[in-house]
Structures
1.
Amino acid sequence: MKTIGKLTGIIALIAIFSVQVLATNYNVDKSKSTVKWNGKKVTGEHYGTINLKSGTLEVADKMIKSGTFKMDMTSIVCVDITSESTNQKLVGHLKSDDFFSVEKHPVSTLVLKKVKSKSGKVHTFSGDLTIKGITHPVTFDAEVALQDETLQAKGKIEVDRTLYDIRYGSGKFFDSLGDNMIHDTFTLDFDVVASGSSGMANIK
């Protein structure tokens, strides 16, 4: 009887532990999520949006453990230029081989591999960003909130475009650009909302 009691206790502990570490997948709600890009040059800046094609986050023990996001590069738009012809000219250039080579590489991917709690709701994420088929590591901070079955993450990723063979207008590779020089770093501001089925406590 004692042996049976011990076995029952061990099984109960295993069951409790399994519930605590059980991972839950959260799927990104594309209608509620946004990715905003911003690129700067000597004479000003341009900005717009890119749609998410898909996204999932794995959560366990009240922490994001991993995730994968795919950005639809064909959806790039510019929102700061009001002239339709000038706007389309810029977007066409961004989609060309001078920049993102969208016809050849219609999807860019971010794979999250490591997450650390920084302070309060802020977490530090590390992973791999693939643009134009080229992959490099990225690290960034994001504010994360998990409320019932909804997860929201807000943050900004700084990207050195030259690492992804985007050299157009870069002072690293071309001399005497003057006012035509474009900064090598652009940013991706994201506000991601995802939903899943979870009985875990809220992330405070």
2.
Amino acid sequence: MSIFEYNGAAIIAMAGKNCVAIGSDLRFGVQFQTLATDYQKIYKIHDHLYLGLAGLGTDAQTLSQRFVFKHNLYKLREERNIKPSTFGEMVSSTLYEKRFGPYFCSPVIAGLEEAKDGTWQPYLCGMDTIGAIEKAHDFMVAGTAPDSLSGMCESTWKPDMEPDELFETLSQCLLSGVDRDALSGWGGIVNVITKDQVITRTLKGRMD
């Protein structure tokens, strides 16, 4: 078994109209043994920026603490929150620093970025263990079931979805994807990020 599949994960980030959503499953296991069903894989950086970390659980916790620390330093120095695109580059460089002994994590970044014309644009990106960035305008997946998650997203995503429709679409993709993966599941959690608020909802899934 690959070290990336040791704990199991399923993460989806999806773009909508002036909103973005990111969701993950809640299972924490050691290979095929389930240890917890309330393990969160999504970390809040600030109100308009969330980070999902799929891969080895210990490395995910280490990385999340490092990124929160780096954002706090940035906020002290610049007196503003970091932009999602800038944060993506920071995550990439942090991973590349350790390329000869990498963290076993695949980050997914979802955020809203204010454009020059005053509108809020979704920002989505993912990367591998050494920080090679892949940006997307529609959706980004990571975890132990990327094929089934990608297939569901490709068949159901459409542009300019409102927050409620975006939540419903991402939730159905997440639940359907983890049903085809023994290493993830046991419900999920979805964060929908808009300009004014973050809506967090918990999903109930199959418990087998």
3.
Amino acid sequence: MPIDYAAFKSFLLAAALPPAPLILLAAWGGFRLRRGRRAGLAMLGVALLGLWFSATDAAGELLSRAVGAPPALTRSEVARWRGQPGGAVLVLGGGVRRQAPEYGEAVPNAITAERLAYGAWLARQTGWPLGFSGGVGWTATQLKQPEALVAGRTAATLYQLPLTWAEGRSRDTRENAAQTLPLLAASGVKHVLLVTHDTHMRRALRAFQAAAQPLGVEVVPAPVGARVDALSSLDDWCPSVEGFGRVRYVLYEQLAWWAGR
């Protein structure tokens, strides 16, 4: 019987990412506490604190710093590339909404939309053409169109900036690099501003720099999603939807880094 890779991966991620491990720890601590084990109280306390902090922006920021998320480009760094020949801005896909009722078609999800917006801004600031890499991911089994097609439609209609390259066959970050960089190199591109989220950038750079070296292409990180300060406000230490998503994203990227995907 063939293994459903998409379902298996989804199950593993659900089991490995918050809140599942912390809920299991709380349940085990409660069980031991009922049996009079003092260690159960400690386990329960750790689980409850973990549940709280795993949904905060502060925890997401600390984890991002721990894994070495790169800083955002400054405006002066962007200006340095303006008008230089042989450059391109490349946006990596992060998923789509398969059907948005308000538009009547598939649209970029929040992650891809943020990357695409910054990529379009960089393209206008530098004068470089814009490209996008993203097909149908390993777990996106119900997606009917590659991400690149959806992103291209959005770039043309929303930003009036048609994609010069739209790579729609890749299924993960390594394939993004392997499929897209030869297209850019064949077009004479020597410098690539690589746009993805700060927490994904370390993994993306590993794949793209390895693929770019034989082609003589320079890859420059252009991350989005970095925080200026997510530690000093009381709100940063309180649970929020954004905080929970950021913590899960950082942990997901660390798992993917270890897996080499």
4.
Amino acid sequence: MNPWLLLVVAGVFEIGWAIGLEYSEGFTELLPSIATVVALVVSMLLLARAVQSLPIGTAYAVWTGIGAVGAATLGVVLFDEPVSIARVGFISCIVLGVVGLNFTTH
């Protein structure tokens, strides 16, 4: 399977476990806690698989970038976190960095 696709899916699962941390309420809620741990394990396994073919520095940066952008975006949508032009600008910088790493790794 394409390592970049594995990495993107790993990043989506990273978003899932990051958001799951909020819903698990410090791992005091059983079902959200289980879902969070499952998402974490799947995310790490897919990342581990992707780095068999991709440089670790690039893969890790892209993985955390996907997670950071997704968690920040869903934080605004799901939890009414503040949004500002500066915040959107900095999130855009992360996206630009992830795209740039993708282009420079091939």
